Amino acid sequence: MQLTYFGHASFLLTIGGVRVLFDPFISPNPLAKDINVGAIQADYILISHGHGDHIADAEAIAKRTGAKIVAIAEIAGYFGAMGIEVIGTNLGGKVVLPFGTVHCVAAAHSSSFPDGSYAGVAMGFVIKANDGQHKTLYFAGDTALTYDLKLIGERHKVDVALLPIGDNYTMGLTDALVAADWVGTREIIGMHYDTFPVIAINHEAALAEAKAAGKNLRLLRIGESIEL
Questions:
Q1: Is the Cα torsion angle 64, 119, 78, 80 positive or negative in sign?
Q2: DSSP label at 32?
Q3: What does the pLDDT read at residue 102?
Q4: Which residues lie across from 22 on neighbouring strands?
Q5: What pLDDT is attached to residue 133?
Q6: Owning domain of residue 204
Q7: Strand partners of residue 104
Q8: Which has the closest alpha carbon to 151: 191, 215, 103?
């Protein structure tokens, strides 16, 4: 399993040669100016909710690559009307795909399209890979700390969690460390931080706080790829 960070909450997860892109907000992000969006390949695009900082590049990438968009029914309908192939789902649903399974879980956050229209409710995703390593990754989306996260830890064995840590619009790091406890992992990859001044973080302080809590926090460089 390889994970590449494109900034904000956008990642590319490669499982057994299948490319899964999360929440593509790249071209409008000045911190990701060195990323060539036109070179990104994807087979599936998973979208957690409808805000512009999570769907900005979804249409262009899906149309260029032929990727299928996996999202809640309202978002699937929105992109399906553009002629994009979609897989609609909803909270509690499980989608079986060539790389494994996608469990749709609750995220405590708002959701609307850039024009303000209704985009369903926000979700997170629990990805269980079928590549032989059988690792489980939790992509939290923009969630706040909520007791729903305890259900994830009870129902799944999470190896690594991608958690928002920027505060203000999502939970901050202190709550994210509690969330990691509740979902049952010590491995955290931070997201949804630094993109805007209001969610800028002190990296050294964040790493120290996570270490003191017994967690391994990774703050990836934009464009960096790691093996999970």
A1: positive
A2: G
A3: 98
A4: 11, 46
A5: 85
A6: 2-227
A7: 125
A8: 103
For residue 124, give the CATH number of its domain: 3.60.15.10
Total number of domains constituting the chain: 1
pLDDT means over runs of 10, the chain (228 residues): 97 97 98 98 98 98 98 98 98 97 98 97 97 93 98 97 98 98 98 98 98 98 97
pTM more than 0.85: yes
| Residues shown for the chain | 228
Q: How many CB atoms lie within 10 A of CB 56?
A: 21
β-bridge pairing 136-139 and 123-129: antiparallel
| 116-125 as b/e: b if 16+ CB within 10 A | eeebbbbbbb
Q: What is the pLDDT of residue 43?
A: 98
**Separation of alpha carbons 52 and 182, rounded Å:** 29
Per-residue DSSP letter, 30 = G
Distance CA 87, CA 85 (A): 7
Core vs surface per residue 25-39: b (16+ CB within 10 A) or e: bbeebeebeebebee
